[in-house]
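Why Phosphate-binding protein? Reviewers of the renewal asked for a concrete example.
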Amino acid sequence: MKKFLMLLVMAVLMVIVAACGGGSDEPAQTDNTGSEDATGDNAAEASEELDGSVVVDGSGTVYPLMSVVAEEYMIREQPNVSVEVSRSGTSAGFGKFLVPNGTDFNDASREIKDEELEEAEANGIEVQEFKVALDGLTFVIHPENDWAKELTEEELISIFNADGGVTKWSDIRPEFPDEEIKPMGPNENHGTYEFFYEEILDKGDLVDGVNLQQEYSTLVNLVSEDKNAIAYFGFGYYVNNTDQIQAVNVDFGEGPVEPSLDTIAEDGDYAPFTRPVFTYLNVDMAKEKPQVLDFARFVVNNVNEFAGETGFAPLPDNEIEEYNSVLDGLSE
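Here is what the prediction returned.
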């Protein structure tokens, strides 16, 4: 009887062991399948790695924003792609963009002109416009200038307009110093100059003796060294140099408005001096070079993240969605 019971226990144990062994076969097969899937995913990811270069030139105003976006793209997305960002100015940049085998993108602080579009068509270049942010044209003065902290829109225009009849601060208001004003700004290579000339001055002649410079950093230094200087450029160059210069609060008719990310936003109180800034894509380059199209996608989907830190107000979400649809069309 004892022998029978022992044999019965041993038989039961053998059944249990067999069952466990049979169960272990299925998980092992699943693990192998999972490993094969993981390898496939890695291969897919590897195939999406890009290389080559992306060449961006143009606006000095947009440069701080685009250079940050480019750096983040190379770190986050495609370390083997080199994105080269230069700042020859909007107009000079279009000169490099609208030629065969030109740059891939041109940043611009104004819209492309009709004659530039005609040049693109003549050279067989298809151009796609993307807004990247909103910028506020900011007037800056010396930190110790305590009389011109608040000016009306008309007073500011009179300083730079040849017909304004203003050469001294006292010409604006009698209580201001009887000192010659030193007006300054970016030169003709910059879209900021053209925006100011066309939109703010309404194509009126600039006052004689206005000091026009290629580099915005030069303007910052000149204003910081001259108590009678006044210059204009994008908000980003002001907000990154508040230790050297101060901004003029502008009265557009309802009291002084300080330029800020809130006021230069869409429909903000600083709207009369607010403008969109752009990048223009060479569509043919985007179709020929996958890294160009990939970078365009990164710009569209991430530019709002970096707008504020570089002195720009972000775009509304609906515009981002529209641009993604445009890029989807290019990849078909």
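The chain has two domains: 52-133+275-331, 135-274. This is the kind of structural detail the renewal will allow us to pursue systematically.
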